[in-house]
Amino acid sequence: MKTLITGASGFVGSAVLRKLIAAGHDVRALVRRNSDRRNLHGLVVEIVEGDLTDPASLQRAVAGCKALFHVAADYRLWIPDPTTMYKINVEGTTNLLRLAADAGAEKIIYTSSVAALGLTADGSPANEETPVIPDNIVGHYKRSKYTAEQTVLRLVTDEQLPVTIVNPSTPVGPRDIKPTPTGRLIVDTLNRRMPAYVDTGLNIVHVDDVASGHLLAYEKGEIGERYILGGENMTLKLIIEEICSIAHLSPPTIRLPHNLVLPIAWCMERWAAVSGQEPRATVDGVRMAKKKMYFSSEKARKKLGYSARPAHAGLVDAIEWFRENAY
Fold first, then answer.
1. Would you give the DSSP letter of residue 88?
2. pTM for this structure?
3. Quick check: is 202 in a domain?
4. Environment class of residue 247 by beta-carbon count within 10 Å: exposed (0-12), middle (13-18) or buried (19+)?
5. What CATH number has the domain bearing residue 22?
6. Residue 1's pLDDT is what?
7. What is the distance between the alpha carbons of residues 78 and 62, in angstroms, rounded to a whole number?
8. β-bridge partners, 202
9. Which one, of 144, 107, 134, lies nearest residue 224 by Cα?
10. Ranges under pLDDT 70 in the chain
């Protein structure tokens, strides 16, 4: 049986790809022509070139595939032209899922994000049923993932597409080649570019546990259901202290108020618009940091048999990989 995966050259996608191969899937990977393919080296996988903004290439990619793992997404907290992000995350997802179903796909796993879910007012862990207030969604990435997830749920209801949704939290670990915003946090800490921190919190999970959760959702997940694939809820202060402990560094001790960081992030964005280089801090990132992004994976644990190792293990593997690859 042929299985198509998108985003296989990326961080989460490459972890899912390895799990699929290990499980015996005959895998085809949709890869952009100019993508960095280091994460595919040495793997037995059929590679087809295409793009989520090119429906003709998607139609070629889904031909003959009975399963689809749609992991690809435009994940950036700052983007010069947000139109591109919506074309990829919303329109591209809609086109791909419809084409896959038309081609005979019997099961589709769509990788959403906890960014598409609601947060609790008191900072306690949110779950799949925590209400989302659309007007409170911060940033184009979160808005695009929320819109995409709502669209996918409508496709399940209105067009009977066989989609199960997974919502990874904040993955860390090896092969974060880009790196992701969280990967940059780790790299900046290792390179002593994190002199201070803000009061926020994240749910940290090993990327390989997220990948295992994808396969569990494929094997046991119900159509139209969502499953959070998370790990350990940690304050940013604790995350940075853990990174520094592993790397034998002294952690920063200065906590900056959010309102003090906002104008700094605004200036960085203005400079980025001129230089074309992604800013180290973004206005949306600071605004999101005002709430602790804590989540519960209890549903995935009960329904899928999902489990995640302590965040320490993911941070160790991430630090080792970044060091080995000269980040």
1. I
2. 0.94
3. no
4. middle
5. 3.40.50.720
6. 82
7. 31
8. 234
9. 107
10. 269, 272-273, 283-284, 288
